[in-house]
Amino acid sequence: MKLQSENGIGRRRFLGTSGLTLLAASVSGIVCNVPSKDENKEIEVSFQTDGWKSIMEDAKKYRKIDAHNHVWTGSNASQVDESCEILGITKAACSIPGGKTVKDIRANNDIIIQAMNSHPKRILGQCYINPLFKKESLDEIDRCVDKGMVMLGELYDAVKINDPLYYPIVERCIKHKIPMMLHGVTTLGNWRPGYLPTNPPNSSVPEDFVEIANRYPEAMIICGHIGGGGNWEYMCRVLQKAPTLYLDTSGSVSDEGMIDMAVKYLGADRLLFATDMNYETGVGKIMWADLSESDRKKIFFENFNNLLRKAGNHAD
Question: What is the secondary structure of 23-73 as a DSSP string?
Fold first, then answer.
């Protein structure tokens, strides 16, 4: 069975099939074989991507700062640079989240510093720390800021963000006037008792972000990736309870209505464009959302740039 779009790809069809491929941006059309209910058969789905190509060309007119990206080794900084250039992303804030020891964490941050130095017009540095190493974390924040990093990120699941171990970390970020971005989850078992957690138990859920943000309203705290998997509707409803919190739009999930609901509950001023290395998805979900020109400019560029401006790290 062949399903053919007559007028290019519509908004609902695009978002419904985006999990099949978003690399179709580079071709004029694509045919995908996808599983049917009969495991022995496949359905051939064919759709034109001229409309998608046009959308991505239109996207290039917007300045963009990617608030959540990664450089895993020194060598792939060039790939990040190339991907950003293709999609008109002015700058990308990158991190290596991880490291079991203080030495490992410092080495990973050094890779980010190398990427910043090799691609100074594109890559912004995010400093990773583990609050379990209290003194070393504060020292590493100071070192990374001195080396030109603009924020903390992507902080992970050693402890929840509302744990008292994070208090001095948040206070140091306030001192340096830099944002901090932390991995957020909304998978069922992590926020509803009685279900098996599918992320580490110390992963931060929306309520944790709300608690720390209301404790430190002067901090610039970012909840990572609305599209990271899980219940993004729940995330939107809870995060509205802390008016100083920000939410980045990254992640491979691009459900219809995701960005629209985030704007409804949080407001466009609290959303930050990001890709988490899902470049076409990241740009596409902002372009396909029902946004005004003003709001699209805010999300793509202005909101995050204004956060960076507080420490003089803005793009313009």
Answer: GGGGSSEEEEEEE-SSTT-EEEEEEE-HHHHHHHHHHTTS--EEEEEE--S
